[in-house]
Amino acid sequence: MTTPESSAEVVSLGTNTAISFDAVRKEFGSGVNATLAIESVDLEIREREFVSLIGPSGCGKSTLLRLAADLIEPSGGTVVVNGKSPRQARLDRDYGFIFQAPTLFDWRTVWKNVALPLEIMKISGMSREKKDEEIERLLGMVGLDGFERHHPYQLSGGMQQRVSLARALVFQPSILLMDEPFGALDEITRDRMNLELHRIWAETNTTILFVTHSIPEAVLLSGRVVVMTARPGRVQEIIPIDLPYPRTTEVEESTRYYELVTQVRESLGQAMAGGL
Amino acid sequence: MSAGASPEIAVPLAARDRLLTDERADRLRSASARITLVLILIALFLGGWELLKWVTDSPRTTLPHFHEVVNYLFSVNSQGDRVWLDTGRNLRLTFIEALTGLAVAIVAGFAAGTLMALSRWTGRGIMPFVIGAQTVPIVAIAPALVIWLGTGWETKALIAGFLAFFPIAVSTARGIGDVSQDSLDLMASYGASRTEVFFKLRLPSALPYVFTGLEVAAAFSVIGAIVAELPVGSQDGIGVVILTSQQYFSLQPESLFAAIGGACVLGGAMVGMVRIIQIVVLRGHRAQELS
Questions:
Q1: Mapping DSSP to helix (H, G, I), strand (E, B) and coil, where does residue A179 land?
Q2: Among A81, A105, A145, A189, the residue to mutate for chain B (most B Cβ within 10 A)
């Protein structure tokens, strides 16, 4: 397996493993209708790392994410999250999950949507004032102050996804699992959200596993890009991204950035050829 | 979409306030438009009534003038009561029957709908009974129920509730069940219990559906109460007034029309009441679901 060449990174990674997949296999359905979504996936993500999963449609990127989130169970192999079973990690609220659709509750205001996880989790040692402060701080961080009392349907798609980001961060999970979070947004909003996400990642101590369809997005954001093959999904190649931090618009215009985009694209091309 | 759709991080405060004021003004405008529409419809109805009478050259014993019906309401009947007071008394009784029936139907229908949506086996057990409740011709069994349970108002409330049950059960089942997989996954990722999923996700997202069913149920409850009053033996209620008015139609044709009008007002009032509750309860929900 390719080791991450993280020496070039200014951002220091933790020494522990946040998520590990060991010979993971997932089959949907049974008998003749069974489809093998992923097979023999080995992958280790270190604490504080930003890793993107990229691959052709149906390669099982989302499946990997859902396995880590304990929303589905593996058919074989083991998934370990923060040294625990995914179920225990879920019950310990170790991760925040961000879906492609913002998945906000229309009947709740922006404020109350962000407060939802806190209502469900009985977080000890967090007073009401502290919670309110935290919600306010996060809404500020995602650029939504002044919109607390709006309802989701009064916001644009980009703003809704920001609310969902604030909601995932409010209980301070150590891991963010993001399933094509900006896939439905227009190019301009998407670019902006990417840079913001990167800033938030740099400011917090969060590990991010990021599923995307976009090669430039994957290269810009990640420490490592995991290229997957077509169904059944396997890890084709892990490409370390040795771009300087912080990742800004200047980085996006550098020659190295273009080289890496090309490298990922070629690897992806091979992955698709192999799958067909 | 509104100005909030701009990709900019923040809409300027002044623009946002203007947006809200616009929304309020829109709501006011649509309310006054609706009232105007209702007035126009009433005028058309009355015009049509009088036109029909004029074109067909109907005598009073077939179709009285509208003002004759109104005059009748203010006359004194054989018992020495003002007719409108007597009609009001009967309407009140029918209203109580319908409202009690509706209340019972809400409780039973909501429970049945929730079970149908959440529990596969209990749901399958209940389903035939819910379908059965819908297919039983209520007009046919109402007399039997009156014979078994007596002519008291409770029997009529039961029949009203029976009719109102089905739309509530079905719309509740639909609403409680219609939750996106992402929302469920989101709740699961918080380690939410089944109770929390129900109260924080399923119930609030089902409310617009439930109210749609409730509106139909409100109208059905009035129909049920009136039908239940028709069998011989009942003494009071607007259904009884309709029945007697029909028997004396050639002598006092205005009476039947007054009773029919009263029944329509009652039905409208029940549905209107549900609407008002809906507007209050669903304040935070998506605007178009309110209209």
A1: strand
A2: A105
pLDDT digits (tens, 9 = 90+) for B275-285: 999 988 888 77
Q: How far is A138 from chain B (nearest CA, A)?
A: 14
Q: What is the CA radius of gyration of chain A?
A: 19
Q: What is the CATH number for A245?
A: 3.40.50.300
Q: What is the ipTM of this complex?
A: 0.86
What is the value of pTM for the model shown?
Answer: 0.80
**CB atoms closer than 10 angstroms to residue A148:** 14
| Choice between B27 and A145, residue whose per-residue pLDDT is larger | A145
> Are A107 and B4 inside 8 Å of each other by CB?
no
Identity of the residue in B4, B7, B185 whose CB atom sits nearest the CB atom of A71: B185
Helix/strand number for chain B, H first, E second: 11, 0
| Containing structural domain, residue A50 | 6-94+173-275
CB contact under 8 A, A93 and B6: no
The minimum CA-CA distance between A242 and chain B, rounded to whole Å, is 31
Q: For the domain B83-289, what is the CATH code? A: 1.10.3720.10
Q: Which of B92, B74, B96, B91 is nearest to B83 (CA)?
A: B74
